[in-house]
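pls design
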């Protein structure tokens, strides 16, 4: 699902959360990709979308692309919480997270990276953190 450069805003994020949470089709999917490039979601729009995605428990493959969305260090907490909950999906084998050109920094990326070890059945992980100022602190959390 691509909603790139659509300026969905907070109200669009809430609508997307409801659709992801309530539509039975999403609960049975084995593969899902959500691209929200250039939407300036910030934390306000990010949280409801992540809440909706938590309901996709049947996935074997998941891709989340949040390129250039104004995410900051504070976004690391909801992203970490999402990954912690989502890691309980025992079927997930492939995970792609693209946060290119945000500002998660070492604190935000650390909160997110520490949850990646909870995914026990992953066979493939693709992580794009380009232009996020992860620094050595964030990189150490990934190791």
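designed seq:
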């Amino acid at each position: 699902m691509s909603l790139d450069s659509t300026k969905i805003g907070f109200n669009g994020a809430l609508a997307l959360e409801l659709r992801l949470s309530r539509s039975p089709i999403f609960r049975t999917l084995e593969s899902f990709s959500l691209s929200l490039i250039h939407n300036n979601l910030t934390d306000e729009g990010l949280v409801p979308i992540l809440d909706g995605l938590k309901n996709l428990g049947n996935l074997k493959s998941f891709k989340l692309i949040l390129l250039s969305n104004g995410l900051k260090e504070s976004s690391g907490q909801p992203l970490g919480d999402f990954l912690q909950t989502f890691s309980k999906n025992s079927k997930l084998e492939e995970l792609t997270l693209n946060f290119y050109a945000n500002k998660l920094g070492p604190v935000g990326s650390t909160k997110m990276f520490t949850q990646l070890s909870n995914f026990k059945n992953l066979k493939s992980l693709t992580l794009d953190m380009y232009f996020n100022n992860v620094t050595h602190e964030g990189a150490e959390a990934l190791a």
